[in-house]
Amino acid sequence: MENLQMLLSGFGTVFTPMNLGVCLLGAILGLIVGAMPGIGSLAGCALLLPLTYKFDPTAAIIMLGALYYSNMYGGAFSAILLNIPGDSPAVMTALDGYPMAKKGQPGQALMTANFSSCIGGFIGMIILTFTGPALANVGLKFGPAEMAALMIMALTSIGWLLGDDPIKGTITTLLGFLLAAIGMDTLSGSPRFNFGNIYLMGGISFVPFVIGTVGFSQVIGLMVDRYKETELPKDKLTLRGSMLTGHQFRRLLPVAIRSGFLGTFVGVLPGSGATTAAFLGYAAQKGFKSEEPLGTGAVEGIAACEAANNAAAAGSFAPLLALGIPGSGTGAVLLGGLMMWGLNPGPLLFTNSPDFAWGLIASLFIANVIALAIALGVIPFIVKILAVPVKYMIPAITVICFVGAYSTSNSMYGVVIMVIFGIVGYLFNKAHIPLAPMLLSFVLAPIFESNLRKAFIMSQGSVSIFFSSTLSCVFLGITLLLILAPTIKKIVRKVKASKTQA
Amino acid sequence: MSKFGVKQIVPLAIAAICVLFIYTGLTKFGFWDATSGPTPAFVPTIISVVLFVICVLGFITSFKDTKESKFYKEEFLVIGAAVLIIAATFLIGLLPSLAVFLVLWLKLVEKTPWKTTIIILLFLMALVIGVFVLWLGVPFPEGLIMDLIG
Amino acid sequence: MKKYLALLLALAMMLTLLTACGDDSSSEDGTFTPSDTITWYCTSSPGGGSDIFSRKITDIITVNDWANGQTFVVDNKTDGSGEVGRLTVATTKAGDQADHTLLTFNSGDLMPMCQNTDNRVENFTPIAIMAVDKQLLFKGEDTPYATFEDVLAAVESGTAVTVGGSKGDDIATYEALMAELGFSETQMPYITYDGTGDAITALLGGHVDLLISKPAAASEYVEAGMIEAILALSNERYTGNLADAPTLSEVADGKYENVEVPVWRGVVGPGDMSDEAAAYWSEVLRQVSESEAWQTEYLETNMLISNYMDLASTQEYMAQYQADYLASIGKDK
């Protein structure tokens, strides 16, 4: 209860007109930046950091918190409306969000995303409030062996997403693996598979890669259908037409809560991040009942990944505040921001400056609510994008793809990557090969590989390290089950069938 | 049996990439180091071998695949335009190239009236310049010509 | 469509020809004053150590108006692990552009550059070194060794003691330590983490035995009693809460020499930068290094040692550092 009291006093610090105004400003700016493909929350926070210099430390941090949160809200906008994920967790959102928007429910898709984000975020922060620094210690238990086992489990569960053709699905998953291997190898410090190219030495940059494979490839494909009238009924594009029905809300609620808990836990783990959380949330949803099949525009699909994503963001604040260890790139930027104000985030933050630490947590709560309010208010206007005829959207999205790809690293390399993978994605679409597994394994593979190799260095090349801890054994066991599940199901079905026949 | 097309080319191309990865990886790093275990090529080699096998499988089964995959001329127009934008960027810079692309595309491909063309151009340029250039300070390339003049 | 393209190309070519005859305005009277926007390249992403360094310096210059009212644009060129940015600066052509281009260049940049590319310090104009840093070895709560002598004893009796640390300069220091101790990489394996923060996490979780880190990153944890310094990788002991850590010559009855690999943060320009411009920027950076803001807001917060070097000493120092490094990785001819 002591924590709760501290939190309440934290609210006391935050509730001034000035702070709320700053929070509002941060939420609006974050939303705009988040909705722009190519910027993402990392670059968004970094680029907006100087803006906060003009305020006093508390106001500045509140603004950063609001920025951080609404950034993630914004990422869902372009994913759902244009099928261009602005950052990596949004890859998952697009899987169901874009089909749902196409089904004539763009407003509902966005609302689902925003409400789930808000619920996920709240769950994460409530857990953070009650466990406080203790939560961070859980993350510490995860060494390379445990992380590698967890990642194997995650990579195996990509299998749930493969769709009807397992061969094609496996091809893209493994291709993502290989593409991620290009570039600097951290453990040995030497470049690999760059084929003598200086640009490839740094690897394939993720954001242009995503904009290309998902966004630009789709623009190419749109050319054929551009004169087809896919006019949405006009009443769908208003606030009233965007409202979720009570039934839809009841569908999203349990999913978002479950995913929120899962996401918080994943967020606490060192170096796993929001993408892993969003993905595991979605994969876990495969194990539960959804009213429509996932991937066809199901409310549950959007809710599962958006809630996990935002919960993970809250969860990653645990190691950041308690230990001073940023769980993600964005966390690192926030850390930089804290240090700029002469605060030393670290094991002593809660003891030395409790006002500040709890003020920050309180401001995250408020930022979450304000970001939701702003996002909901924007929906009726932003869905109007869909009323623009496709033939005008093609050149417009092309321009946005180019600008976004350039802005990720301020170089034409990003643009070239974007166009090349746009063509690759286009060919894959023609060959009916799914793209999402490739993007996911591209994110997860490096985490898996570096932990696997770290574990081997520690054990001097012995496999025993993976079986010496309970945690990694549990993950490996689940992996085995995941691999065997389809076979077991088949056998069970056969047995049942033979029984009914007999 | 369907014709030889994209469904056959994609697995073959990926299989070729696998061979390339296996060869470069093993010649440069080897597979397993006696003291520190896996080399930088360890995981990529395993993945490449598996992927190669699956690609061969995919190639064989692809002939039974009856789903259509048709290509259209218009689609290549977008790809062509993208390549031209990149080329033009080196001459006149990215943003001017995109502006020129917008106008040419709307006028020549879509035969849009001037009024709509200008509205779309102004709206997008205001968005891009406002957010990316003025606010976020992204330094866009100015191209050879601007470099020489400026 | 073809017609338009042809027209466009023709126009472009004409312009190129016209402007190619343009002048190459450079300093006339032997001094240099900035006359254009200055591009400051930084080869790490926004928010990273190099980025904060670059932005702090440009902030101080702008606030004090030491650059003739010109603005700075910090350009984060992270392509190719930073090699593309470094190559871009190295090959910037002489003239106004070269005189208005600067690059943040650290020992952690020099090492991968020399190891993985043919780019060398000679392709740049070294301008200043602003600060240096050194490292220490730390133990965590789960580390079974109380002192560095215990570590030595354990390794000699055949136990592998794992060391965690960051990329780049931490590895160089580790290798220097191994060379001095005469241990192989199997006896004391090094595990490379993406950043010092990740390595600290590993030490706190008991996944590595020892941690190599710069004092600033570890200081908070020392204060909280979560980790403890057991060896100073420098020629003299640290002060404050790190004072208890002995240097290498103090342990094992003076059997070993001290190990110190300075980690520096510096600024360079393109190789073709004019001498006048180099002198100008060197002077500006001297002013920065002496400013109050630099001392308190940068050096103190990051626990760095101020170590400004002028043009001549920077050039000599960086060249020597590169020669030593090339020799250590066997790349000297």
Topology:
The complex is a heterotrimer of chains A (502), B (150) and C (333).
Chain A: H1 2-14, H2 17-35, H3 40-48, H4 57-82, H5 90-102, H6 106-131, H7 133-140, H8 144-157, H9 166-181, E1 183-185, E2 190-192, H10 206-225, H11 239-242, H12 246-268, H13 273-286, H14 299-315, H15 317-323, H16 329-340, H17 349-352, H18 354-382, H19 390-409, H20 412-430, H21 436-458, H22 470-501
Antiparallel strand pairs in A: 1-2
Helix pairs in contact in A: 1-18, 2-3, 2-4, 2-18, 3-4, 3-16, 4-5, 4-6, 4-16, 4-18, 5-6, 5-13, 5-14, 6-12, 6-14, 6-18, 7-15, 8-21, 8-22, 9-21, 10-19, 10-20, 10-21, 12-13, 12-14, 13-14, 19-20
Chain B: H1 6-29, E1 32-33, E2 37-38, H2 42-62, H3 73-92, H4 94-109, H5 114-135, H6 143-149
Antiparallel strand pairs in B: 1-2
Helix pairs in contact in B: 1-2, 3-4, 3-6, 4-5
Chain C: H1 2-20, E1 38-42, H2 49-64, E2 72-76, H3 83-90, H4 96-99, E3 101-106, H5 107-116, E4 124-133, E5 135-140, H6 148-156, E6 163-165, H7 169-181, E7 190-192, H8 196-204, E8 210-213, H9 215-223, E9 227-233, E10 263-270, H10 275-290, H11 292-300, E11 305-309, H12 311-328
Parallel strand pairs in C: 1-2, 1-3, 6-7, 6-8
Antiparallel strand pairs in C: 3-10, 4-10, 4-11, 5-8, 5-9
Helix pairs in contact in C: 5-12
